[in-house]
Amino acid sequence: MKLVFYSIILNNHQANVADNLWELTNHSYCFVELVKPNDGNQKGSMENYGSRPYLLRAWESDESYCKAMELALTAECCVFSGLSALPFEKARMKKGLLSFDMSERWLKKGWKNLFSPTILRMFLAYHLGGWKHKHMYKLCCSGFAANDQRKLLTFNNKCYKWGYFTLVNDFDIDATQYISSSRTFTRLMWCARYIKLKHPELPVMMARRLKENGYNFRLDMYGEGEFKSRTIELAKSLGVDDVVHFIGNKPNKELMADMRQHEIFLFTSDRNEGWGAVANECMANGCVLVSSSDIGSTPYLIENGKTGFSFRSPELSSHFDNPDMAALDDLYRKVEWLLEHDEERKKMRYNAHRLMSEVYSPRTAAKRLLSLIDNLNKGRDTEYIDGPCSKA
After folding, report:
1. Tens of pLDDT along 228-280?
2. Strand, helix or coil for residue 136
3. Which of 53, 138, 242, 325 is spaced 20 to 30 Å from 25 by Cα?
4. Which CATH class, in words, describes the domain spanning 3-165+361-377?
5. What pLDDT digit, counting tens, does each position of 75-93 carry?
6. Which CATH number fits domain 173-357: 3.40.50.970, 2.120.10.30, 1.20.1050.10, 3.40.50.2000?
7. How far is CA 308 from CA 165, 178, 222, in A?
């Protein structure tokens, strides 16, 4: 089988599945990169993927672009992601060949997203191109993507769960204990850019409540961004700068090692977050994820009380001067419960790691995608009940 992915760039969100597809197809796999990599599109990783044997950089030359177009017209199956892939997608759909469109949710901001140039062009391409009646399916990189497609009358009964798949390594979850002043304490972690949609105010405000109620913990906040200084000021003003520590940026490998030194990970973004690959990473490294309910990966990865907790997503309008108190209350309740239930927290850490290693690993995702393609080619539907390539 010749399988071809078309996407903006090959980065750490895509390379793990790509490596496995290259191997599992006996090197009959190609990743077509559509845009030159830069600091803004590498998703926090500076690793150079240019030497991957399956990589075709359509942006490099007219010859490469023409080769990418030829593949779109001849490959057994193609997966298209983003507006940059649309010319190739349209050309393939004229021939009605087996294809997938891959994306996060289209309606992050509701119906007004339909008037954004990107979504409008995709929407019109689907309906004007008659894709409804063609061998075209949807890979949903968000727990909300399928519902958005239903609202738009696109990909009816053709949506499958997908996402981003980070590396999963085995390690001893029981190897670390946290001792301070002869007392056990629990380490919490937050890692993101300090920008509005990430809501860095929430973990700091939660820390004050935990401290006031006598819990023994430490919150480490990783990252940089425009609101970092204001977050530091908030920690000082609330009197939690002794338990809230600001780490800054670290290379991805060091971040993964640091995740293993923490038990609880706080993911506080609002609905503007796409998938949120840090969710995979923290769960794969043994953290209990406490994640905002509107983050794209949350409905797929979180089974409350088993693999983590979801809490009420903060409103888009909330920020330092206008915090969402309902979201804060729910976040606090979930973290408090975890701090008070040591054995349950330990089980949830195991469950989270198992989910990543057995279901949402790059290897499993690659195998399932190839199985789904085979089934669709034979007129059958997916064999999977949940996880990647199950019905969304």
Report:
1. 999 999 999 999 999 999 999 999 889 999 999 999 999 999 999 999 999 99
2. strand
3. 138
4. alpha beta
5. 999 999 999 999 999 999 9
6. 3.40.50.2000
7. 18, 21, 21
